[in-house]
């Protein structure tokens, strides 16, 4: 219990401010107890969700950290729980904030209050959030929508989690099959809208693969088809709307009427979201390391929300006192990517899977949900071998066995770390090395990763911030106003810590199944490419 000491005792059951009625609870290694509603139990018991028990949370990380055998199943339960904690915290914190503001207005000169209200028109308003707060506090429907969105946010993951996404079809291929799918009209319309937007934004649209989020939308639409309100198609549409802003909320629902869709989206999938807060703590615990620790309790005590009058949207905010915990959270995420998710052993597995995907270039994961749901970490390799039983070579068969069954991994022969600040001006040796390896008949792959502290935009010359996340400041009159997050966190402007990591891995054998000695290859690379003048 040492990991969760920072927020031990903060229970959804004891401090449930929303109107949800919990009917049971699950013991969890990270959060202690996770309560659930009757509707949540129904969805958790469905095969579509139970499949997540057979998909590892961190794919091949267990090859470097043996304890990392946890799955998307428990992570998804944890995200639902944390989303509920965030919602309860926002309600409690916002009530206190609005009460304090009301008292401050009574004791503050009128012209100062008027200046603040004018300031809020351009920078976001805290004073006009009472109506939205009432919705959050009283609408059981909104609370259940949020928790369902958090619970199901990963239900579309491929085998081997993110690693398996390299087998997904392109957006162009998906577009050609979209109208063959048995999906509701509202989802068909949303996906066509998403495709049109991508075509305009991305010149290489036809080469970009879809991601697991598309399958998530298809699965959610498949699950929510019952007459009961909390399992209806209307709720399915609103859940998809929270998960993906391309989907419009049902116009007759509390989600549409309240205007809170963006706020709930940010709770599930933003820069300070329930997804990251659970997986950082959970992955750290299961890997047996300390890199992902941060003070969740302090963040929960600091979150609130505001209204942007220009866009008519609500967004997350945080009190100034929570910035240190927020920065610890950013550091934890950065460290986990550096030390765990981009570990050299983990990326060796990525290289092998990348080689398989290139060798079987015609193969893509099925888009029909009945077929897709049959695939998980245990069934994928047998499925692939059966599909290509007449064509798969012994060479490729051995690579698959080495990856999944034997843990005989490819070897790293070169790596480079290039700061993003000099990315365009620093020459890479990778193309020359890969060309040289081809001459040696040595199969290889380049795996590239990038690390950054946050996706928030750094402070620039623009008058207005590009970031929706704001910091709540208390002035000498006890009034509260909003300032850009980049004005209060130096980490957001630390572009010097953003690094491109490239690693080259080679196979243990060539296509003729002749053994390859990595030490000899490394020496040849050094003599021929890296230090040619010394020979």
The CA-CA distance between the termini, in Å, is 58 Å
Kindly state the percentage of residues in helix. 40-55%
Radius of gyration: 25 Å
**Judging from the principal axes of the Cα atoms, what is the shape?**
globular
State the secondary-structure class: alpha+beta
Number of helices: 21
Overall pLDDT level: 92
Q: For the report, how would you describe the main beta sheet?
A: 4 strands, mixed
**What fraction of the residues are assigned to beta strands by DSSP?**
5-15%
Sketch the topology as an H/E string, one letter per element: EEHHHHHHHHHHHHHHEEHHHHHEHEEEEH
Low-confidence stretches are 1-14
* Count of strand segments: 9
The largest sheet has its strands arranged as 3-4-7-8
What's the quaternary structure here? single chain
Show the helix and strand layout.
Elements: E1 24-28, E2 32-36, H1 38-44, H2 47-50, H3 72-107, H4 110-123, H5 130-138, H6 140-152, H7 171-178, H8 185-201, H9 212-223, H10 233-243, H11 254-258, H12 261-268, H13 274-287, H14 296-302, E3 303-308, E4 313-319, H15 323-341, H16 344-359, H17 369-372, H18 380-387, H19 394-406, E5 411-419, H20 430-439, E6 444-451, E7 470-474, E8 480-484, E9 499-506, H21 518-530
Parallel strand pairs: 4-7
Antiparallel strand pairs: 1-2, 3-4, 5-9, 6-9, 7-8
Question: What does this molecule look like?
Answer:
With 535 residues, this protein is of the alpha+beta class. Helix content is 46%, strand content 11%. The chain is built from 21 helices and nine strands. It has helices at 38-44, 47-50, 72-107, 110-123, 130-138, 140-152, 171-178, 185-201, 212-223, 233-243, 254-258, 261-268, 274-287, 296-302, 323-341, 344-359, 369-372, 380-387, 394-406, 430-439, 518-530, and strands at residues 24-28, 32-36, 303-308, 313-319, 411-419, 444-451, 470-474, 480-484, 499-506. Residues 1-14 have low confidence and may be disordered.
């Amino acid at each position: 219990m040492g990991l969760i000491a920072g927020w031990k005792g903060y229970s959804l059951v004891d401090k449930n401010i929303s109107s949800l009625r919990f009917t049971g609870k699950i013991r969890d290694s990270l959060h202690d107890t996770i309560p659930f509603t009757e509707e949540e139990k129904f969805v958790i018991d469905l095969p579509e969700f139970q499949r997540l028990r057979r998909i590892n949370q961190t794919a091949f990380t267990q090859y470097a950290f043996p304890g990392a055998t946890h799955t998307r199943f428990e992570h998804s339960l944890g995200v639902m729980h944390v989303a509920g904690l965030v919602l309860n915290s926002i309600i409690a914190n916002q009530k206190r904030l609005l009460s304090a503001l009301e008292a401050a207005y009574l004791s503050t000169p009128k012209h100062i209050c008027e200046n603040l209200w004018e300031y809020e028109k351009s920078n976001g308003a805290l004073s006009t959030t009472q109506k939205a707060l009432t919705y959050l506090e009283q609408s059981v429907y909104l609370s259940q929508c949020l928790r369902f969105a958090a619970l199901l946010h990963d239900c579309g993951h491929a085998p081997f989690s993110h690693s398996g996404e390299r087998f997904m079809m392109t957006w162009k291929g998906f577009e050609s099959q979209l109208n063959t799918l048995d999906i509701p009209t509202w989802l068909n319309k949303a996906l066509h809208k998403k495709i049109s937007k991508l075509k305009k934004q991305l010149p290489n649209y036809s080469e970009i693969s879809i991601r697991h989020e598309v399958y998530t939308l298809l699965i959610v639409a498949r699950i929510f088809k019952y007459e009961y309100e909390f399992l209806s198609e209307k709720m399915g549409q609103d859940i998809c709307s929270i998960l993906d802003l391309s989907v419009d909320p049902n116009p007759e629902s509390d989600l549409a009427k309240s205007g809170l869709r963006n706020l709930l989206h940010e709770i599930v999938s933003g820069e300070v979201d329930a997804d990251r807060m659970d997986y950082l703590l959970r992955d750290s615990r299961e890997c047996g390391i300390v890199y992902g620790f941060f003070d969740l309790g302090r963040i929960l005590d600091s979150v609130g929300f505001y209204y942007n009058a220009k866009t008519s949207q609500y967004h997350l905010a945080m009190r100034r006192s929570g910035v240190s915990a927020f920065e610890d959270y950013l550091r934890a995420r950065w460290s986990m990517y550096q030390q765990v998710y981009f570990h050299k052993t983990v990326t060796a597995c990525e290289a092998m899977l990348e080689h398989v995907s290139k060798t079987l270039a015609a193969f893509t994961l099925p888009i029909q949900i009945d077929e897709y749901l049959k695939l998980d970490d245990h069934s994928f390799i047998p499925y692939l071998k059966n599909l290509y039983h007449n064509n798969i070579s012994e060479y490729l068969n051995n690579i698959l066995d080495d990856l999944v069954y034997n843990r005989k991994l490819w070897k790293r022969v070169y790596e480079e770390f290039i700061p993003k600040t000099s990315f365009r001006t620093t020459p890479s040796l990778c193309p020359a090395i890969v060309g040289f390896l081809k001459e040696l008949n040595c199969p290889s792959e380049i795996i590239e990763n990038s690390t950054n502290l946050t996706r928030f935009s750094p402070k620039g010359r623009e008058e207005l911030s590009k970031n929706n996340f704001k910091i709540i400041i208390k002035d000498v009159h006890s009034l509260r106003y909003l300032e850009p997050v980049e004005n209060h966190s130096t980490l957001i402007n630390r572009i010097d810590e953003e690094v491109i990591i490239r690693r080259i891995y080679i196979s243990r054998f060539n296509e003729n199944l002749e053994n390859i000695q990595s030490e000899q290859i490394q020496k040849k690379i050094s003599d021929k490419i890296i230090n040619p003048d010394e020979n």
